[in-house]
Amino acid sequence: MQPENQRQNPPLSIPPRKQAPVGGVRPQPNQAAANIVRSQIDAIYDKPAEEHAAASQSDDEPQSVYDRTHDEQQHQVTSSAWKRYHSSWQNYYQQYYERYYVGQVYQAKQELEANAKTAPQQPKAALTQEEAVQDLKTELRGKVQTHAEKVRKSRHFMPAMAAVAVMLVFMFLQYNRVLFANVEAYITPGNIDPQNLIIDPNAAVEVGPDPKLIIPKINVNVPIVWDAVASDQNSLNKAMNDGAAWFNIPGANAMPGEIGNSVYSAHSSNDWLDQSKYKFAFARLEQIKEGDSIYINYNSKRYVYTVTHTKVVLPTDVAALTDPIDKPILTLITCVPLGTADKRLLVFADQVSPDPTAATKSADVAGTQAAAAMPRNSPSFLERIFGGN
């Protein structure tokens, strides 16, 4: 026998939980079902938190924005996912406001069109011709000023202006004689010298001993230079700077009053640098027509010629001056077109006074030489630089 105090107390038995009666009726005990429920609850609470969270998330349920863009392990934002998230919202707001404003514009347009249909049409006041012209001038002036302002602000403006200035200077140096010759031809009729007005061309009048060539129609009254060498262009130019040069070549070396061709050449234009008051003597020779009168004072006697025809030839067509003839005639030469030396204008005239039948045969003149070309204007700017006559 064991002592009293050493005796082991028997285990206490826990009675099963009893449910309170409902409606006064006690349910039938189902201990096995209760034990199953208790085991399931204990299993739920005994699982790790991660497994419980994973179990609570269904495979079919979409993840939240937070779960998609965050890393729970490192507690930081996934940059690529966040950028896609941010871009999606930006696109959404952009498309939203675009639709909103387009809708507002469309609505305003509809309202304006509706008002235009319902509002009474106001008749426009008719513009006078002066008002219309003024409006057009104002509009054109505005457009020109706008474009000019854009051009001036362009970085190409100054180089372009410099190039234009250089080109204008070059054009002036090369072709200034064209400008000045045409101006001279235009103003010459208003500067007619009274001594060139001849009342009766056939009247016997006393004239001075100085040899002169006079053409009243084009206001020409120039001295005649006899000592030019026909084969030397420099000699001819020097003589033409002092008046009209006698172009004495074999077959065309007659003097006034002699049977044959008496040929005279003068400038129609020259460069502005050339110092000569006769450089535009024949600027208007192209205006001479058949029947016009030409006069030459020679040995104190006036010889009268009447123009028969004109002809334009190449500078080298010297043979046009040497056709055989049996009467006294006169031929004038100058360069054409005006301001150039491309071709030569020939003006032919027959002597009518004194009596041409009393003319004597021309004698050989010392110094007569053949020429390869007719006289010409002075060299142009380019010809002075690079050479050539």
Computed structural class = alpha+beta
For the sheet with most strands, the description reads: 8 strands, mixed, barrel
What percentage of the residues does DSSP assign to strands (E)? Answer: 15-25%
Order of helices and strands: HHHEEHHHEEHEEEEEEEH
Mean pLDDT figure? 78
Strand order of the largest sheet: 3-4-5-6-9-10-8-7
Q: What is the rounded distance between the termini?
A: 165 Å
Instruction: Give me the CATH superfamily of the domain at 186-386.
Output: Sortase
Number of strands: 11
Shape: elongated
The percent of residues in helical segments reads: 25-40%
Number of helices: 8
Q: Identify the CATH architecture of the domain at 186-386.
A: Beta Barrel
| Rg result | 59 Å
What are the low-pLDDT stretches, counting only 5+ consecutive residues below 50? Answer: 1-15, 17-28
Architecture overview:
With 389 residues, the chain is α+β, with helices and mostly antiparallel strands. It has a domain of 201 residues: Sortase, Chain: A, CATH 2.40.260.10. The protein is built from eight helices and eleven strands. The strands form two sheets. Strands 3-4-5-6-9-10-8-7 form an eight-stranded mixed beta barrel. A two-stranded antiparallel sheet has the order 1-2. A hairpin with a 2-residue loop joins strand 7 and strand 8. The longest helix is centred in the N-terminal third of the chain and has 40 residues. It is elongated and about 175 Å long. The relative contact order is 0.09.
